[in-house]
Specification:
Length: 515
């Protein structure tokens, strides 16, 4: 188990190699002599905690610390969102722009082939235009009433008198085309999924009659609230990826997280049953493998919490986590994830039950975020990362040879093996820091729960003779550092990383100085 590799790498590199090199400036305080000499110089004596190592943590995710000190890496991204306007647009689309009225009492259909059934609509904007012709010779007075369209309990009513028809040319018409009736503030309460319109045409003689060419037009409707059955609609999200930079510097090795999670975090103020539809949820690995998350909850979907009629305006929240108990997440997230490939939609009224009525308000929405959580509890075996550091030894003309001594007292349950290479300006290897990869820190011992029970001490040496150091001093411009990290027993034991765990490092250098 490890955190993002460049942080441990950086601390060990700076303390064990670079800090030592930078301290060669202390030679300026050493009195010059005319013969070769050796000087023992203490360079570093420090204690660093895991919290210190990660203090300047940089990632596209976030680092959190549990109350007990356990570290967790989290990566979060929005995967699907929906607001009420999209559903209101569908209601608008279900209403024909021009509605012919064929009888004095008629039901205007207020449903759609997709199953949309509206019980109530509150309008915040919009207008209605009526039009009719009088082909009777007598003047008529027309009263048109919408008993289910009310404002303050008063139905919407139009009344207009139209002259009689002469028998030739265009018939006299009644319309409010120039001054459409505002519907703002009106409530529509349907009956049997319909709105009823009735008109009464009274001739000047007092006789009731019918009209020809009666039409209604609804335009620019905007809603503030709706109740009913909103159909079985699929709302598509966008296929995207959530990047994970934990493995940015990985080159080889294995890692296993004991308790990783992918959590879907839901916020929902729609009063409608809604369920996730997972089209894809894959882990993309550093080896370019695509590993699908397998779970019954991927196959069947996850139901969103939603408010009831007595909770209008409230936002319900919920979280569902894919764990190793209900999915294969521990296997696929242990394969070196660099991204999560996802395609998540949502479907309303997933059981297609019109008996379940719901609501939406103008500020209703749902949002689903995905969070990937990597707790620092698990195993690592030969988990190798590579880092580059600039170096410059050209000013150290008085040094003939160097021997470093490094003493590490480690209370972190990770073993650190290091090898480094000095590179020239063409990125060609000049020399290696060590004859072979060397363990600079043994892992601290742990108990059955992966908790540290003590610390280990490791003493290491690195020697550079005169000719070898001369070439490094003259030609090297960068240091390529390979760091292999393993948990206890070469990665066979799961361990936990806590903020208070520390490593103490002492570095000394025995310097050969010449005139």
């Amino acid at each position: 188990m490890t955190m993002k590799n460049n942080y441990l790498t950086a601390i060990f590199a700076s303390l064990m190699v670079l800090a030592g090199c930078n301290q060669f400036d202390e030679l300026e305080d050493i009195r010059r002599v005319d013969f070769d000499a050796e000087y023992a110089v203490p360079l570093v004596d420090t204690r660093t905690t895991m919290r210190d190592i990660l203090r300047d943590f940089e990632t596209i995710g976030s680092l959190t610390i549990d109350p007990d000190g356990l570290f967790r890496f989290r990566y979060q991204q929005e995967v699907v969102t929906q607001n009420s306007q999209d559903i209101f647009n569908q209601i608008n689309a279900a209403l024909p722009p021009i509605i012919p009225v064929s009888s004095p009492f008629m039901a205007l259909p207020f449903a759609s082939p997709d199953g949309l059934e509206i019980d109530r609509l509150d309008l915040k904007k919009g207008s209605m235009i009526y039009f009719f012709e009088n082909r009777h010779s007598e003047m008529v007075t027309v009263t048109m009433t919408f008993p289910q369209v009310t404002k303050g309990g008063v139905p919407l009513v139009f009344r207009q008198t139209v002259s009689g028809y002469s028998g030739s040319g265009n018939a006299p018409a009644g319309t409010n085309l120039l001054f459409p009736a505002s519907l703002a503030g009106y409530t529509i309460a349907t009956e049997n999924d319909s709105i009823y319109v009735q008109y009464e045409a009274i001739r000047a003689s007092g006789q009731k009659d019918t009209l020809s060419s009666v039409f209604l037009r609804l335009q620019d409707l905007e809603f503030s609230y709706a109740e009913g059955y909103f159909g079985n609609f699929l709302y598509e999200g966008t296929r995207d990826t959530l990047s994970i930079d934990f493995f940015d510097n990985w080159i080889r090795g294995d890692i296993y997280f004991e308790e990783p999670r992918i959590t879907l975090l839901v916020e929902n103020s729609f009063g409608i049953p809604t369920r996730s539809v997972v089209n894809a949820l894959n882990v993309i690995t550093v080896k370019k493998d695509v590993l699908p998350l397998k779970s019954i909850f991927v196959d069947n979907g996850i139901d969103f919490p939603y408010p009831g009629f007595n909770e209008v305006g409230q936002v319900k929240t919920g979280a569902f986590s894919f764990t190793k108990q209900n999915s294969n997440i521990d296997v696929i997230l242990g394969a070196g994830p660099i991204a999560i490939d996802y395609d998540v939609d949502a479907i309303t009224n997933p059981d297609n039950d019109p008996g379940i009525r719901g609501f939406i308000a103008e500020d209703s929405y749902y949002r689903v975020n995905m969070e990937v959580e990597l707790p620092m509890y698990g195993q690592a075996s030969g988990f190798v990362a590579v880092e580059n550091f600039a170096v410059d030894f050209k000013n150290y003309t008085d040094v003939s040879d160097v021997e470093f001594k490094v003493v590490v007292d480690n209370a972190i349950p990770l073993a650190i093996d290091i090898q480094a290479y000095f590179l020239d300006s063409n990125n060609q290897i000049i020399d290696s820091l060590l004859a072979a990869p060397q363990r600079f820190a043994e892992a601290a011992p742990v108990d059955a729960q992966g908790l540290v029970t003590g610390e280990t001490r490791t003493v290491s040496y690195a020697f550079y003779s005169g000719p070898r150091f001369e070439r490094i001093k003259d030609e090297s411009v960068r240091l390529l550092l390979n760091t292999a990290i393993s948990s206890l027993n070469n990665g066979t034991k799961s361990v936990k990383l806590f903020s208070q765990q520390d490593v103490k490092v002492k570095i000394g250098a025995k310097l050969g100085v010449r005139k």
